[in-house]
Specification:
single chain; 211 residues; mainly beta; 4-stranded antiparallel beta sheet; 17 strands; 0% helix
Length: 211
């Protein structure tokens, strides 16, 4: 369960997406989490959606809230009360959770796992047993990429790999994963990135990726 705090001017300060029965709902905390109420249904039984439950949130320049989770994205135009337009993104991604954040420069930054390791066009599929997932999907977590957007996510820079597991080494999960990334901008343009799985700790400079 992930809780993301968003500084908004009106209703919602925290939003959480999680499973409730066979559907997924938004949970609202207008008082910094002192009280939580269930919000609108996010989605239920959408065939082309692999699941949306761990996504980070950013406020766009037009006032909407965008969440990206693995292969899918969703938008709210009323501070998280309701969510609409849930759909697959055009970004090549595995089903593993991503990190989306607005930097002090105004750019959006995305840290995520691409569908396949760089330079390849295949990866073993997981799931399909109606437990982890209803259909088999890429759960690639051995490589972490980064990209930046200058236009609120409409277009993105070419992805750059920032960390990867040496596949020649014999390791089993979770050591073969660099997943659940978190990004903290400690100073303008200075990005600290960590992962819950794999223990990644890296410092990057935004300017090194901007052409």
């Amino acid at each position: 369960m992930f809780i993301h705090k968003i500084i908004l001017s009106v209703t919602v300060s925290m939003v959480n997406l999680c499973h409730l029965a066979d559907a997924q709902h938004a949970f609202l905390g207008p008082d910094n989490g002192k009280s939580i109420s269930i919000g609108a249904l996010v989605h239920q039984d959408v065939d082309e959606i692999e699941g949306l439950k761990m996504g980070p949130f950013v406020k766009l320049d037009n006032g909407n809230i965008l969440s990206v989770d693995g292969t899918d994205c969703i938008i709210s135009s009323d501070n998280g009360k309701t969510w609409e337009n849930i759909r697959p993104t055009d970004i090549e991604a595995s089903s593993a959770p991503a990190m989306l954040k607005r930097l002090q420069s105004g750019r959006l930054v995305l840290v995520w796992h691409r569908r396949f390791p760089e330079g390849t066009s295949e990866y073993p599929l997981s799931g399909g047993d109606r437990q982890w997932s209803e259909v088999a999907a890429s759960n690639h977590r051995e490589e972490l990429s980064i990209a930046f957007s200058e236009d609120d996510g409409y277009t993105w820079s070419d992805p750059r790999v920032i960390a990867k597991i040496d596949r020649r080494r014999k390791m089993g999960p979770p050591l073969r994963r660099i997943s659940y990334p978190y990004l903290f901008e400690i100073n303008p343009g200075e990005l600290w990135i960590t992962t819950m799985q794999g223990g990644l700790r890296v410092k990057l400079n935004e300017e090194d990726f901007i052409q």
